[in-house]
């Protein structure tokens, strides 16, 4: 049978494809900018026929149709490895559940522990060799397909073809059904960084060196830093980052990123997922400079550490006076997820000349009242994302401090020095009560 004949034999409508789903099944939807659309709508159409169908995905950029038709989760149980704003609201309403993880472990978690009855994955059109490319969602996608009893591909001509290092594609022989769709890639603009984000980024930029290998997380501050790097005189930077961000296009096109000094994947921009605007999608499409790998490679701390001068830059929500960092929850409310923050904090420390930065605005407003993000203890119910012993640099708009090797009283002093001035006296009193403030501390 020729490839085209095999394709036609497996080609069905979305409605025909989702007939394979049974009550009680575990379904995977793809991830990030690569989540099924036509199959989601078709499965939602079967809501009244099904019970206890459990769905897994990462970071919804569209409101899932299965949740729209079943907000009470009577038929579909929607689970997510990393929340977006949409998932956060669904979680608040009791319509979504969070799956804790360390990002680099997820492919192994699928292979070792999880059942996948049906994998539904968006892909590019088939190439002349019978391969479909996963686009910008390599992450854990191949591991999902390996475990799936049934694999359904949603072929979308608008999906960028992202060249890879490994596991970035699937052959037609590994596929059970194919559906065709034509939906536009969602545009997720990063927005213009705020002045306070630029201020925070300005403390990090001077610590970067020629040849640094950069990882940027999600958020305004990392994007602000990326723009600053693009306008700097830094040379021969590398990129090895779980997410490919909009500002990385600026960094590469400015000539700052060559990858010439990387020890592994020299001259390559390495990432495991990405989303942004059409400019980013066009940049990644068929770009020989970029290599998409599964996350158990990109985020493996021992892979990260093989490059020198790794600089890991991530946002967080809160830090306590001992250095515990909460980056995924505010109290008991799940905001995002662990993602790769732990992976890169650990990996960057073991990189020769490596540095890890946690950054946040020192305060936030709630109900018109100003609150500190530097607190005596993590807000009750809050999840510690990064262990205090892992944290190196902490940055706010009031400065940057290094916590590595510091005793608890030194940490308290350092963190209070970059807290908002309105909260410093109260934080000193709290530190005294906690027994982590010495009489010789600076005031």
Structural class: alpha/beta
Number of strands: 27
Mean pLDDT figure: 96
Distance between the termini: 79 Å
Radius of gyration: 23 Å
The portion of residues forming beta strands comes to 15-25%
Number of helices: 16
Shape, principal axes of CA atoms: globular
- How helical, in percent, are the residues? 25-40%
Major beta sheet summary: 8 strands, mixed
- Pick out the low-confidence regions: none
Architecture overview:
The structure is a single chain. The chain is α/β, with parallel strands linked by helices and 443 residues long. It is built from 16 helices and 27 strands. The strands form eight sheets. Strands 1, 2, 3, 4, 5, 6, 8 and 10 form an eight-stranded mixed beta sheet that branches. The longest helix has 14 residues, at 421-434. The radius of gyration is 23 Å and the shape is globular. The termini are far apart. The model has no long low-confidence stretch (mean pLDDT 96).
